[in-house]
Design brief:
317 residues, alpha+beta, Double-stranded beta-helix, 8-stranded mixed β-sheet, 9 helices, 27% helix
Length: 317
């Protein structure tokens, strides 16, 4: 075990297999000890050199920490379910960057733990960048941070119409009544359109306090959901087709007022500055405290397969 060399944040903490090719079960006690001591400090641990035998073995590893694995409900990106509670990572085209984000921080419920398993590393690119959300919080301009914290954020989503996830995929059901029950239980306003599509809005946190460490973290996806995240030609085409109110997703302050573009650019700059990147090796497993560490995806070439599991549900207080 050692810390990543040359990384002042010690992110990720690296847990190396005692013998390359060992089964993780042989080091289970040491792994649990490392997670207990290092995950709250570093926020992320990279397990390297173990021989994982497919998605089922990875799922057993994730389950070994004592929490039932979660389904991917109220999804914002396309994924494929592989093995019970294991999913593909977001299925966006290889040329697209997925910005740094904390999983499901666009909602009032999220997983505390998330695992990524590299089954096949792409020959070029394909990293999973990470960033310490405590550091991001500290580096955000205090005036912007206070404004976001006080106003909170309203996420607006228009599903389907060939432009975004269909509501059936996002909510993992074909039953409208199940969607409505989920929305009511989650404080999500919803509206069915005349053509059978769904529109939702939900007011959520912009910052959060970790329930165990007490650390304050930057915890939202404003920079990702905001329409300014789209390339200008795509943005203009979308608006010309469906209008500003009909775009697949957008975000405002909690009172419905627009978020300043300068604030969003500042947030993106801070995230970029805090980003840590390492090359995947086949067999790697990255375990993150989802509140302490954000993750993303770099562009890549060739074949890449990274699978994901999540556990330990948490809710906004």
């Amino acid at each position: 075990m050692d810390d990543a060399p040359g990384n002042e944040q010690n992110l990720p903490f690296i847990f190396q297999a005692p013998i390359v090719g060992d089964a993780w079960q042989a080091s289970r006690a040491q792994i649990l000890q490392a997670v207990e001591s290092e995950l709250p400090r570093a926020g992320g641990i990279l397990f390297r050199g173990f021989a994982f035998k497919g998605e089922a073995d990875f799922e057993a590893f994730a389950r070994s920490f004592g929490h039932e694995l979660l389904t991917y409900d109220y999804a914002s990106t396309p994924r494929t379910k592989l093995n019970n509670r294991v999913y593909t990572s977001t299925e966006y085209p290889a040329h697209q960057v997925i910005p740094l984000h904390n999983e499901q921080s666009y909602s009032l419920n999220w997983p505390m733990k998330i695992w990524f398993h590299c089954v096949q590393a792409s020959p070029v690119g394909g990293e999973t960048p990470i960033a310490d959300s405590r550091l991001v919080y500290r580096q955000i301009d205090p005036a912007i941070r206070q404004r976001f914290a006080e106003k909170r954020l309203m996420y607006v989503r228009n599903y389907g119409n060939g432009l975004d996830l269909p509501w059936q995929q996002a909510f993992s059901t074909e039953d409208r009544s199940q969607v409505e029950r989920f929305c009511r239980a989650s404080n999500i306003e919803f509206r069915w359109t005349d053509d059978g599509e769904l529109s939702t809005r939900q007011v959520c946190q912009a910052v959060a306090q970790h329930p165990v460490t007490g650390d304050w973290v930057w915890f939202n996806q404003a920079h990702l959901f905001h329409i300014s995240n789209l390339a200008a030609p795509v943005r203009e085409t979308l608006i010309s087709i469906v209008g500003e109110q009909g775009v697949p997703r957008n975000v405002f302050y909690g009172d419905g007022s627009p978020i300043e573009l300068q604030a969003l650019e500042h947030i993106r700059e801070v995230l970029q500055r805090c980003q840590v990147t390492f090359p995947w090796q086949a067999g790697d497993v990255l375990m993150l405290d989802n509140m302490l560490v954000a993750h993303g995806r770099s562009t890549f070439q060739g074949t890449r397969k990274v699978v994901v599991a999540m556990a330990e549900p948490a809710s906004a207080s």
